[in-house]
Amino acid sequence: MLITIGAGRTRLRLSLLLGLSFVALILAARLSAGIAPGADMLAGTLSLAAITIARRALADAAIRQAPAAARFIQPTALLGAALIQTVLDQKFGLLLGSLPGSEAPGSALWIFLTYLLFQALEAALPALSSRGRTVRRAQADAANAEAAMLRLQLNPHAIVNSLNAVTSLILSGQHPKAAAMADKLAQFLRLSLQMSKPFIPLGDELMMIEAFLQAESIRYGDRLDILIDCPDHLEEIDVPAALLQPLVENAVKHAMASGLGMVGLVIRAAEAGDRLLLSVETDVASGSTSFGMGLSNTQSRLATIYGDLASIDIGMDSEGYRGRISIPLTSGSK
């Protein structure tokens, strides 16, 4: 988010500088011709700013909807903006239309070409700011590297906990359970290796969680009642890999430590406007709401990837344990 904001501010400053320089040149030409600035200059400046902003917004929106048509959309937007400003100038005597010779035959062509050049320069500002692009790219690479490092710390953490559980089963003489849990743990690790990208579809994330919980179910037997609720259309949404694992692990560990018998575990995905809401809940109000290594790691990953557009909240009430994550609702690869 910070990278996006920084890029937007840089473009705004460059756009303002270009626009003010353009208007200043026209003002200088008017003064040299003995034409004093008036309301027409202000009206022309405002119309140029409004047309430029509208052109940029419409072109960007159209390109987002149809990226393959970008090479046609942008030129069309530039031509349209230049044509509209040319018509306004000639009809109301604004900016270039107020200069000497603007009423001569053929003047519409040079006015149009001048505005086309202005709009093209304004559209090319992000590309012209090569230094800004380099800095933003370096910042993005650093953020991706940090997120990847935090992601790699999660699997060893889960493996150590699971292996400790297998060891406990062996030492207590529950050899069949230990063997079955080791087999399910191996399945979980195979899935983790197959889904090693920074972002994976939510459906794949839930598949890994299900494999992890199958191993835990062998350890706890019938005490663990699991429900995973995710609408089909949300399964294609990309999320950071292993996002839910620390929440599920924390919920199961503390709920089972209560020794209160059957524990209901619900993992749910839902959408609220432009947000993806992920929750992990148990019906046992037991354990700690403090952030251990896994949850702290997840909090850091969310901050690195989404800035303040994401949140994680752990709480407990009379009905049980609640862990919730809120991130922007997006689809496609990152």
Write structural notes for this entry.
There is one protein chain. The protein has 334 residues and is of the alpha+beta class. It folds into 2 domains: 2-128, no CATH class; 147-328, Heat Shock Protein 90, CATH 3.30.565. The protein is 63% helix and 14% strand. Mean pLDDT is 79; it is low at 1-7 and 145-154.
Strand order of the largest sheet: 2-4-5-7-6
| Mean pLDDT score | 79
Net shape: rod-shaped
Order of helices and strands: HHHHHHHEHEEHEEHEE
Rg from alpha-carbon coordinates:
30 Å
What does the secondary structure layout of this molecule look like, with pairings?
Layout: H1 2-32, H2 39-65, H3 70-92, H4 107-123, H5 125-128, H6 130-171, H7 175-194, E1 199-201, H8 202-220, E2 224-229, E3 238-240, H9 245-257, E4 263-272, E5 275-282, H10 293-306, E6 311-317, E7 320-328
Parallel strand pairs: 2-4
Antiparallel strand pairs: 1-3, 4-5, 5-7, 6-7
